[in-house]
Amino acid sequence: MSARAVLLVNLGSPASTDPADVRRYLDEFLMDPYVIDVPLPLRALIVKGFILPTRPAKSAEAYAKIWTDAGSPLVVISERTRAALEAHMGIPVGLAMRYGQPSIAAAIDALAARAGALDELVVVPLYPQYAMASTKTVEVAVETALRARGIPHRFVPPFFGDPGYLDALAALMERSRPPDAQYVLFSYHGIPARHLRKVDPTHGHCLSSPDCCAIPSAAHATCYRHQAIATTEGLAQRLGLRAGEYGFAFQSRLGGGWLQPFTDVVLADLPKRGITRLAVVCPSFVADCLETLEEIDIRGRATFMDAGGASFAYLPCLNDDPAWIAALAALCDAAALAQ
Q: Measured between alpha carbons, how far is 61 from 79 in angstroms, rounded to an integer?
């Protein structure tokens, strides 16, 4: 019997909040050449010589603030999403993490054991906007694992502008946004600016001018910044937000040369502009995680309130929202039908 199945792939998480587990996770994550894209000797020096001696303990403290009795929020929520999608589609759905467990190879083997002889595997990198440090590294890792197993497959492309994704997130935002919020900040995970140039198929469009994201180009297919702006505008339109009532920024920077504006800087600046009642959403994440629950809802909240803010509302990710599950199923069906 042949079968069709779906594999969801998210970023990953340490196994626990123990600094040793966090160190193993960060080592795997940061040594990925698509994340820190420098030659191996330099990457090893940066990661093992400068980051890993101190970062695991600090990160472990941050994870401890959001950890649940069931484990990592990212893994727990992703598993709920997997189960809901499987029930909705009526076919086997697996879950893998790019770093940590369950690994991509282990998840594929477990899925094949449940589904039988797979003649079609739809793979969903759970990142709405394309980036080499997220989408690309998942595609490479999955291709490597599937090549050895001979399983035919298709990838769901970035869904930053998909109407189902935007409708689901806009509806969730509408339900959770306080009616007195003056401003909505769309906060996206940051990436180094050089990553845009590296994946630019035109080799010259990205960051060539201040308005490059508004100029039609083949580069937009892999331009994280353009896609983040497109998501922002699609959501703002659905929510009826006018110019001056919303903006976007990039969080989680590591080092210099990252996309701006920076979320933490914007949060500190907004009260100076008279914006004291704020709502923040993180559209580059489909499941709540360290970057949303700790970086934004805890540290970001403190930054804004300490700067003179009066109220701060963190709007949750899609997680296993039923409208998102339906949109995700539609994305999988469309990928399966694509030629």
A: 24
169 neighbors 239 (Cβ within 8 angstroms)? no
The conformational region for residue 100 under phi > 0 = left, psi -120 to 50 = alpha, else beta, is left
Continuous segment of H or E residues that includes residue 53 = none
pLDDT of residue 333: 95
Residue 247, strand partner residues: 185
Spatial contact of 8 and 81, defined as CB atoms under 8 Å apart: yes
> Taken in order 329, 223, 270, 309, is the CA torsion positive or negative?
positive
d(CA 156, CA 103): 19
Dump pLDDT digits (tens) for 289-338.
999 999 999 999 999 999 999 999 999 999 999 999 999 999 999 998 88
CATH of 2-158+321-337, one of 3.40.350.10, 3.30.420.40, 3.40.50.1400, 3.40.640.10: 3.40.50.1400
In order, the DSSP letters of 241-305 are PPTTSEEEEEE---SSSB-SSBHHHHHHHGGGGT--EEEEE-TT-SS--IIIIIIIIIIIHHHHH
- pTM of this prediction exceeds 0.85: yes
Q: How far apart are CA 51 and CA 175, in angstroms?
A: 40
- Asked if 2-158+321-337 and 163-315 have one fold, the answer is yes
- Topology adopted by domain 163-315: Rossmann fold (3.40.50)
Q: Where are the domains of the chain?
A: 2-158+321-337, 163-315
Contacts 24+ apart (CB under 8 A), 223-227: 223/130, 223/196, 223/199, 224/129, 224/130, 224/131, 224/188, 224/191, 224/195, 224/196, 224/259, 225/196, 225/259, 227/128, 227/129, 227/130, 227/158, 227/160, 227/161
3-state secondary structure of 316: coil
Structure tokens at 34: 């698509």
| 158, 227 Cβ separation under 8 angstroms | yes
Integer Cα distance of 112 and 104 in angstroms:
12
Q: What is the pLDDT of residues 7-66, one digit of tens each?
A: 999 999 999 999 999 999 999 999 999 999 999 999 999 999 999 999 999 999 999 999
